[in-house]
Amino acid sequence: MCIFRQPSNIVDATDTSDPDYYHRVVDCQWACPAHTDVPEYIRLIAQGRFTEAYLVNRESNVFPGILGRVCDRPCEPACRRGRVEDKPVAICRLKRVAADQREDITTRLPKIPKVKNGKRIACIGAGCASLTVANDLLPLGYEVTMFERYGVPGGLMRSNIPAFRLPESVLDEEIGMILGMGVDLRLGTSVESLRALLEDGRFDAVFVGSGAPKGKELRLPGRDEAAANVHIGISWLESVAFGHIGHIGERVLIIGVGNTAMDCCRTSLRLGARQVKVMARKPRGFFKASPWELEDAEEEHVEILVNRAPKAFVVQNGRLEGMRFDCMEYELDARGRILCERVTGEEFLPADDVILAIGQENAFPWIERDLGIEFDKWDVPVIDPRTFQSTRAGVFFGGDAAFGPKNIIWAVEQGHQAAISIHRHCQGEPLGERLPAGVTLSSRKMGMHEWSYANDYAPIERRLMPHVSLKERFKNLNIEVELGFTAEQAAEEAQRCLNCDVQTVFAAKLCIECDACIDICPVDCLTITANGAQAQLRTRLKAPAQNLAQPLYVSAALPQTGRVMVKDEDLCVHCGLCAERCPTAAWDMQKSHVHWPHAADEARVLEARKPKIA
Amino acid sequence: MTFIAKPKVTHPSLPQNALGLTRRAYEGALSTLCAGCGHDSITAAIVEACWRLSIEPQNLVKLSGIGCSSKTTAYFVSGAHGFNAVHGRMPSIAMGANAANRRLSYIGVSGDGDTLSIGLGQFCHAVRRNLDMLYMIENNGVYGLTKGQFSASADVGTRAKKGETNLQPPIDPVLLALDLGATFVARGFSGDKRQLVPLIEAGLKHRGFALIDVLSPCVTFNDHEGSTKSYAYTREHYEPAVLADFVPSEAPITVDYGAGEAREVTLHDGSRIVLRKIDSGYDPTDRAAAAAAVQARMSSGEYLTGLIYVDPGEERPDFHQINGTPEEPLNALPYEQLSPGSAGLRKVLARYR
User: Fold this and answer.
1) How do residues A351-378 score in pLDDT, each as one tens digit?
2) Which of A515, A526, A587 is the best residue to mutate to test the B interface, defined by the most B CB atoms within 10 Å of its own CB?
3) In terms of pLDDT, which residue wins out, A533 or B73?
4) Tell me: the pLDDT tens digits for A457-470?
């Protein structure tokens, strides 16, 4: 008799052939809109192969040097290291290391064919989305014309991100790589009418990557009277970037607490402000700014005042004196959501200048509304979220112009997707039938006790980014504050990566249920138990699996008892000890490579399908 | 085996015991046994049981002899006292230590060779004396360290890896212990921690000699077809007679057992073993019936497992009662009491004049 034998058909085994399954385990890559192969480039950095690390980045995110400084880093909150320890791997900073230390890559950029394919594409705006479209289409033989209203390319990357965070030289170099592929760049050329551009007939497709250039206004009493000293954040940053504004008053109030507000307050300090206060309507938990940007601003002694709702601009004798605020009190529920709010008083704060940084919008005064491009009730164009095509065939949107302000990395991915659509559109292929994502696995076993990746857990804490001293950094608007990791710091930080792409791959039919993997697992993520529904399985695991966002892996029925191997992917540190301890090699450590198709892949597949003429 | 050490990183929400320690605090050195060895699972079960009992590591003594099994004391509770004895001589060391300090918990880990061949005599006398310890046999039926010859527990008809068949009858430690008057006799399987962990807890708390014979497949030399101690064979021929739950003295019984289904055995410190019978006719407090049941199963090629016999009231005197050992550890007794001096010696000698 065997008491173990259990019915095994309650829940189907996890389908690991679904390319999303192993992709999800690589939390950083899954969280990255462009699906950058983070563990791969961190390993290359650890080997000192900075150029290769840069190229891995460039393939998906196009601007590694820029993003290595100013990315919104959705990868870092997702990083598994942050669940095992306090702090995630400094992924973004490592990206910068690759960009700073790389050699010349000119010869390794995609080759541009001399014979063009006869298709012309217009890109409106020379920001990150348009540049990505050009980057993807030029190597396929397209001719790309790019219209830019300013005299320099770069869009909001140049006009809205202060030079002390993103030096001009970095921008110029990475934008230059794309322009050098042969973009027909028309600087200082605004597109005043989309109709005219379309009727021109020269272009086979139009990509709108004009960003979200309109800062939100704050209509309060005294606004018009104080106009001379009240600035709209993004326009003000733009004027600073282009040298039109060179100083600001001593006392500055910033309204809003997003990343633009952080750039405004720190820029103010470099233009002569002595006392800068950032005014937040809500408590700290509601701040939109990234934690590291808040940290950097506070390091420069910017004061952030919470629970102050702007009420009026105070103007005397035609001059701004300050602002009045309502002092707020909020009642929060257990999950930190606001239940109700109360005004508890009023406060006046003196100011010489006020900068409004409460959001931005896209604006399309130059798109006629009878072109077949549908706009919704908020006057935003209706865009297919997968193909990025508008309701008019051949007109595509991407970046902030498509779905409102987000970060560079989103614009880049939208540019990639739009480039695929443009290619399919120009080749007469249906836009929806794109290449699916794929994943390949290959074993990392080298021999007895040998794995071709660094599988020992390095108990190192996150390295701190060295900064230019507070004394030095204000001397010039262009002094980059972050110095970048030193070689030692980069080497140590790279060791913190858990290699989540080296997957634990299980073959149920080989398992003899000896428990060796379960006993050795340092984070108790394995259990052999009777099959059941996921929610029920979670109650029977060796250690609690409380992170419901992370799936459980459930194997096929094990040969001896019909039970199943369950793995909680949440905290696996990919140390490989399960595979190391397995007597039958039922566990193996296999590197997953996620194929996230770009326009070049589409082109290859479409080309292969064409009949060959002998 | 592996050369790669288990990293110190832990699951952030690992539960803590009464001492505020996690399971990881009860681990030991890196195991050098073959990957997949049943002994490593038993080590993990010991770690779990010691953690659950909140044993202070310095209050545990781990003893062993020679063999694969005897290496394992290095792999759990690295903060405990340990002694690696000569082959088969672990019970002598256990007895000496026990006599000197009865306040500590004693766990002896031995194998089928160390216990049933070279150490059989020592084992028998430890059972007779009702030495206050938990004695675990990691039983795989072969001499693993010397490349897989049959041991004294190999069943008749079992085949070795190279093909020869065993013709000599086995010595069954459970039957032997029952016969010699053991007060706590259990059998487990390295592949079933749900059964094994409570047995180890109860065995550590039992006053007197507690034997757990654990079927522990040798993944390298005895896990093939034709072996009667492989993972697959053991799973197919494994029959629990009783399910034992261990309930510490301070804890209430939270599981609701059906009427007549469960039976409690209270240990000397107030903790309890709740026995749930699987076979309704089985009585784990009846020595003769227990021995008969083990034998009956054995003749049909099956292993009866679980808590096979327990002395219900812990009535039999243990080693300390029989020998009148002092309550206080010898190292805590004042010198005058430890050494009678020349006057005292003269008094002792006078008794023989």
Assistant:
1) 999 999 998 888 899 999 999 999 998 8
2) A515
3) B73
4) 888 999 999 999 99
Closest CA to B84 of B93, B95, B75: B93
Residues A353 and A470 in one domain: no
Chain A residues touching B239 at Cβ < 8 A: 1, 3
Residues in chain A with CB shorter than 8 Å from the CB of B7 are 456-457, 459, 522, 573, 575
CB A313 within 8 A of CB A222: yes
Distance from C-alpha of B123 to C-alpha of A334, rounded to nearest angstrom? 61
C-alpha radius of gyration, chain B, whole number: 21
- Asked whether residue A603 is assigned to any structural domain, the reply reads no
Q: Does the distance separating the beta carbons of B232 and A560 come in below 8 Å? A: yes
Whole-structure pTM value: 0.89
Output the pLDDT for position A352.
95
CATH of the domain at A338: 3.50.50.60
Residues of A in contact with B44 (CB under 8 A): 515, 518-519
Q: Which of B2, B7, B13 minimises the CB distance to A522?
A: B7
The whole domain housing A178 covers: 112-213+362-426
Both A123 and A78 in a single domain? no
Q: Is B265 a residue whose pLDDT tops 90?
A: no
For chain B, where are the alpha helices, taking DSSP H only? 38-52, 68-71, 90-100, 112-116, 120-129, 173-179, 193-205, 231-236, 287-299, 319-323, 335-338, 341-350
CATH topology assigned to domain B23-323: Rossmann fold (3.40.50)
User: Contact A560/B9, CB-based, under 8 Å?
Assistant: no
Nearest to A519 among B4, B9, B41 (CB): B41
Q: Are residues A135 and A160 in the same domain?
A: yes
Instruction: Name chain B contacts of A457, Cβ cutoff 8 Å.
Output: 7-9
Residue A438 lies in a domain: no
The tens digit of pLDDT for each residue in A84-97 reads 988 999 999 999 99
Domain total in chain A? 3
Q: Is the CB of B193 less than 8 angstroms away from the CB of A515?
A: yes
Tell me how crowded residue A509 is: count the other CB atoms within 10 A of its CB.
11
Contacts 24+ apart (CB under 8 A), A487-490: A489/A463, A490/A45, A490/A94, A490/A97, A490/A101
Name the residue in chain A with its Cα closest to that of B43.
A519
Give, as one character, the DSSP assignment of residue A121. Answer: E
Q: Which of B6, B26, B224, B304 to mutate to test the interface with A (most CBs of A within 10 A)?
A: B6
ipTM score: 0.90
**Co-location of A197 and A223 in the same domain:** no
What is the average per-residue pLDDT within B247-273? 74
Unique residue bearing structure tokens 């088969």: B88
